[in-house]
Design goal:
- This protein is of the alpha+beta class.
- 47% of the residues lie in helices and 12% in strands.
- A hairpin with a 7-residue loop joins strand 6 and strand 7.
- Helix 4 packs antiparallel against helix 8, helix 12 runs antiparallel to helix 13 and helix 16 runs antiparallel to helix 17.
- It is elongated.
- This is Transcriptional regulator.
């Protein structure tokens, strides 16, 4: 897949530079695209000096390595390299991937261009939010949550005006949380419609890969070494459980999902009476439950479910266990990536509710204690976190005004406080 070297059809360079100068002198929006004008206003309101040399201290190697290892987009880097980076290097362009807080995690492509880009601090570990470096494709894409392209003088910081770029945000396909941004940077070629479309297509492929990996291999995406053998049970986020056994994947209804969850949580197994109590506050004939378990056994791999008491004969590892293991080891970032939602959210069984609430509370507390803005955003910006005022207040306090999403976070806090 090649990248076009055709000249950008946008306004000529001199016209764009005149529009930038007019804005800096009079705050006029004449001949400026609305999304660029709004970005300029945001950048100035946060104290950016457009004519000053960019200065910041990128992350140290050890801190950057830790961020990369725990970030969910690390697993997608081979795909990004095959679809975009190889062609970008041939075309003399750079590919960058940031986290949701605007920190560049990877910058790859043409080696000579990478050395030039380092002169404006476009390098791994650097903060490329609008507040740190002004209008730029990855930072602005995160701020407005949509794909953007920025051509030369549309950058606000003088040091960045020789460059052009296109970027798009990447979202978790299940939770909708923003994971980061994918960016293409270089000369005029980086902001052409062709390059813009190629970035969007690569993002779509990455999001599709994340979804397919989750559907076909359960939580193996998060802990491949720990679930290579046995059976993998997925109960987080969806309406029902999924059991992956070798090459087969089985989907279950809610009652069977509840039974699978409870048995996976019991090391010593459970009797029919114990299961009945765990599933309902009302008296439930154990003979009815035994019939339900009999139907469940017929859907499972042969000889997986044993009786007296009911228990699994083989190794059944759930995605709950994966999340707990990450938290036990202090790997909060990996836990956030593995936590795709509450445990069987449609279940009203007392024991399931208890498991759900305990795990969710532990996740919240771990994230709040960890104090990482990227993790807070990835957890809060989901269907299960969007109404959690404490999370959003913590994100607002931690990020301050230098986050690409400070305006949207503040608006969310105000809405939740007023609700």
């Amino acid at each position: 897949m090649g990248l076009s070297r055709s000249r950008s059809p946008q306004d000529d360079r001199r016209g764009a530079e005149r529009a930038r100068e007019a804005f800096l002198e009079q705050r006029t929006a004449e001949r400026v695209r609305p999304e660029v004008y709004q970005s300029w206003l945001r950048s100035l309101s946060d104290g950016l000096d457009p004519e000053a040399e960019l200065r910041q201290e990128p992350l140290a190697d050890d801190a950057l390595r830790a961020l990369r290892e725990q970030h969910p987009l690390a697993a997608s880097m081979p795909l990004i390299r095959s679809l975009l980076t190889q062609s970008a290097a041939e075309a003399g362009l750079l590919v960058a991937v940031s986290d949701a807080a605007g920190r560049l995690l990877w910058v790859e492509g043409d080696s000579a261009l990478r050395r030039r880009a380092e002169g404006m601090l476009f390098l791994p570990g650097a903060d490329w939010t609008e507040q740190a470096v002004g209008t730029n494709a990855p930072g602005t894409a995160l701020a407005v949550d949509r794909a953007v392209r920025i051509h030369r003088a549309e950058h606000l910081a003088r040091q960045v005006t020789p460059w052009s770029c296109s970027a798009a945000p990447i979202h978790d396909p299940d939770t909708g949380a923003m994971l980061g941004a994918l960016d293409l940077t270089g000369a005029d070629d980086a902001s052409t419609p062709q390059s813009f479309a190629l970035v969007g297509a690569t993002v779509a492929a990455v999001e599709a890969q994340l979804r397919i990996a989750r559907l076909t291999s359960g939580m193996a995406r998060h802990d491949p070494a720990g679930v290579a053998a046995g059976h993998r049970l997925t109960v987080l986020g969806g309406g029902g459980a999924t059991l992956s056994s070798g090459d087969s994947v089985r989907k279950f209804g809610l009652r069977h999902s509840e039974l699978l969850l409870l048995l996976s949580e019991s090391a010593d197994g459970m009797t029919a009476d114990q299961l009945a109590v765990a599933l309902s506050d009302e008296d439930r004939p154990s003979v009815t439950l035994r019939a339900e378990i009999s139907r469940l056994r017929a859907l499972l791999p042969s000889r997986l479910l044993l009786s007296r008491p009911y228990r699994f004969a083989g190794d059944v590892r759930s995605d709950i266990a994966v999340v707990r293991d990450h938290l036990d080891r202090g790997r909060v970032g990996r836990a956030v990536g593995a936590y795709t939602g509450p445990v069987l959210p449609d279940s009203e069984a007392p024991a399931v509710i208890q498991i759900r609430e305990q795990l969710h509370a532990r996740m919240r507390n771990s994230i709040l204690k960890h104090g990482d803005s990227d993790l807070l955003l990835r957890f809060a910006d989901t269907t299960f976190g969007r109404d959690d005022l404490q999370l959003w207040e913590a994100a607002e306090a931690l990020m301050g005004p230098r986050s690409p999403r400070s305006d949207t976070v503040a608006a969310r806090v105000n809405r939740l406080r007023g609700s």
